[in-house]
UniProtKB/TrEMBL annotation:
<protein>
    <submittedName>
        <fullName>HAD family hydrolase</fullName>
    </submittedName>
</protein>
<dbReference type="Pfam" id="PF13419">
    <property type="entry name" value="HAD_2"/>
</dbReference>
<keyword id="KW-0378">Hydrolase</keyword>
<dbReference type="InterPro" id="IPR041492">
    <property type="entry name" value="HAD_2"/>
</dbReference>
<dbReference type="InterPro" id="IPR036412">
    <property type="entry name" value="HAD-like_sf"/>
</dbReference>
<dbReference type="GO" id="GO:0008967">
    <property type="term" value="F:phosphoglycolate phosphatase activity"/>
</dbReference>
<dbReference type="InterPro" id="IPR023214">
    <property type="entry name" value="HAD_sf"/>
</dbReference>
<dbReference type="GO" id="GO:0005829">
    <property type="term" value="C:cytosol"/>
</dbReference>
<dbReference type="InterPro" id="IPR050155">
    <property type="entry name" value="HAD-like_hydrolase_sf"/>
</dbReference>
<dbReference type="InterPro" id="IPR023198">
    <property type="entry name" value="PGP-like_dom2"/>
</dbReference>
<dbReference type="GO" id="GO:0006281">
    <property type="term" value="P:DNA repair"/>
</dbReference>
<dbReference type="InterPro" id="IPR006439">
    <property type="entry name" value="HAD-SF_hydro_IA"/>
</dbReference>
Length: 215
């Protein structure tokens, strides 16, 4: 096997969270008197945490309202985090294959930590070993801190740990952590953005990714 451990991004990689994110974004915008956003618009905003999401969603003159939108978003999302969210096809089976092979698996996400844990436990249970979400002492990706925390806990080195994600932020995160990166093409980020970020390994299905890891 190529690796002893795999760190996954969550949104757009393991789970399709877009519909629930859009609902929470539009709730927050409505609370602050702004118009609604489409799925494609919300897709283009996500990946760098809630604060950056609303910096992208709001017009320039409304930037002072970002904090209020973030608070409204988190309040709504915390109770509507798992309404429409589902695993991508083949993801549970991929995690089962990795578990059976003795490979450590975890999630490093820019989603706030409580939501990461709730979603991972609801959809994957014991198929994931550990989680690192956004928190007070956890810088957001592309900072490598979350990945390093997981590797330290597992006792795995950089050469034996793979990072897998769907976005340019994930490519940068892997680079900053000194890890090989597997870029999945079923998620939120267009392939052109992955290419521009320097992605070199692309996977169109969870099964293909599992085959690569286990080869």
């Amino acid at each position: 096997m190529r690796y002893r451990a795999v760190i996954f991004d969550l949104d757009g990689t393991l789970l399709d969270t877009l519909c629930d994110l859009r609902a929470a974004v539009n709730f927050a915008l409505a609370q602050e008197g702004f118009g609604q956003r489409t799925l494609d618009e919300v897709r283009s905003y996500v990946g760098s945490g809630a604060y950056v999401l609303f910096e992208r969603a709001l017009p320039g003159e409304a930037r002072p309202r970002v904090e209020a939108c973030v608070e409204a978003f988190k309040g709504y999302y915390s109770t509507h985090v798992n309404v429409y969210t589902r695993p991508y096809p083949g993801v549970p089976e991929m995690l089962e294959r990795l578990r059976a092979a003795g490979i450590r698996t975890g999630v490093c996400s820019n989603k706030f930590d409580a939501a990461v844990r709730l979603l991972c436990e609801a959809h994957f249970g014991a198929l994931l070993d550990d989680f690192a979400g956004e928190g007070v002492n956890m810088p957001k990706k592309p900072a490598p801190d979350g990945c390093r925390r997981l590797m330290e806990k597992w006792g795995t080195g950089r050469a034996e740990t793979l990072y897998a994600g769907d976005s340019d932020v994930d490519v940068q995160t892997a680079r900053n952590a000194g890890l090989d990166c597997a870029s999945v093409t079923w998620g939120f980020c267009p392939r052109t953005a992955l290419q521009a970020a320097g992605a070199t390994r692309y996977f169109a299905s969870a099964d293909a990714l599992a085959d690569y890891i286990l080869a």
